[in-house]
Design brief:
The structure is a single chain. The chain has about 200 residues and is an all-alpha fold. It has a single domain, classed as Up-down Bundle (Ferritin). It contains 8 helices and no strands. The radius of gyration is 16 Å and the shape is globular.
């Protein structure tokens, strides 16, 4: 797993700020509620890609598997919340995903390439955050977050591979554009704590 995590650290433009980790530890109920939302949204994104790109067999297979895994994670987070007496409710989303998606091109194949790159970055950041949080959490939650690292790392790789395939060539420059955007979203202060927010002072 260390290799996969190292690859993700090399890929992402920055590490999660310590202030965000402090925010997460002080708001664990909120973190779990938003984590559940993130898993549900990840499944929804995968399914919407399956509906939109019905002729892409590789994408259909990978997204079908990904959606199943994300929904399983969703159920696991809900079970942890239930044990802890945390109620699942509506939350306003972080500016993170919307901030990344504002750069997505409107027309295909550019649109598909960009959506897949954004998917890869979100999965990579989730993986990085699970790893950053695990040492500070109680044993049950730490074990759960550590168990998620492997699948999130694979999802990141799947998204990137599909993006390259859709582009029919190198995507480094495009990935670089989105990573620059991601760095700002992760490092700049945020007003509300979320799983993918910047630090809240």
């Amino acid at each position: 797993m260390n290799d996969a995590l190292q690859e993700i650290h090399n890929f992402l433009p920055c590490r999660t700020p310590q202030q965000w980790i402090d925010n997460a530890l002080a708001n664990q109920d909120l973190m779990l509620i938003d984590h559940a939302h993130c898993e549900k949204k990840a499944a929804s994104t995968a399914l919407s890609l399956m509906y939109r790109y019905v002729d892409n067999t590789d994408l259909l297979n990978k997204m079908s598997r990904l959606a199943r895994e994300e929904l399983r994670h969703f159920e696991q987070v809900l079970a942890i919340m239930k044990k802890r007496g945390v109620e699942y409710g509506h939350l306003t989303p972080a500016r993170y995903a919307a901030g990344l998606r504002q750069e997505v091109r409107a027309e295909d194949p550019g649109r598909l390439v960009d959506v897949l790159i954004v998917g890869a970055i979100i999965e990579a950041r989730s993986c990085e955050r699970f790893a950053a949080l695990a040492p500070f959490l109680d044993e049950k939650l730490a074990d759960f977050y550590t168990s998620l690292l492997k699948s999130e790392a694979r999802h990141y790789q799947d998204y990137l591979a599909l993006a390259e395939q859709a582009a029919g060539g190198p995507i480094e420059a495009r990935v670089g554009d989105f990573l620059a955007l991601e760095k700002a979203l992760i490092e700049e202060p945020d007003t509300e704590f979320r799983f993918h927010s910047g630090p809240v002072s």
